[in-house]
Design a protein that fits this description.
Layout (H helix, E strand, L loop, with lengths): L10 E3 H8 L3 H9 L6 E3 L2 E5 L3 E2 L2 E2 L3 H10 L4 H8 L10 H4 L5 H10 L3
Antiparallel strand pairs: 1-3, 2-3, 4-5
Helix pairs in contact: 1-2, 3-6
């Protein structure tokens, strides 16, 4: 893993996520436990990269990607770093590519990390 990862453009707190997804805060915590969403502590507060939420939903392929990264031994910080490391063969970073037509390619690459 390289150290040239970018930081997400915007971080959302869990209450922000609850509001955006129209969920209760306990449901957001359940999404974190179920690996449907990822959060890391920034300034002592759990935060989610805004790029991983499209409008009022979590990016479609994110839960699968998170499962693959965890299966490959990545912790949450490492997974965020991987998602936000620029890749010249993708439109920016894997996180950006997840919201477009290259989501399957990102999934393939995450899957290869386990081997």
């Amino acid at each position: 893993m390289t150290d040239d990862a970018e930081q997400p453009a915007e971080w959302l707190t869990l209450p922000d996520i609850a509001e955006r997804l129209d969920l209760g805060i306990s449901q957001v915590h359940q999404k974190l436990r179920d690996n449907e969403l990822i959060a890391v502590r920034r300034d002592g507060v759990l935060r989610v990269p805004a790029e991983l939420v499209a409008g009022d939903t979590v990016l479609k392929h994110l839960p699968g990607i998170l499962t693959l990264l965890r299966d490959a031994g990545y912790n949450d910080e490492e997974a965020i770093r991987w998602l936000f490391t620029p890749d010249e063969s993708l439109p920016g970073t894997p996180a950006v590519a997840l919201s477009g037509h290259q989501a399957t390619e990102v999934k393939r690459r995450a899957q290869a990390l386990g081997f």
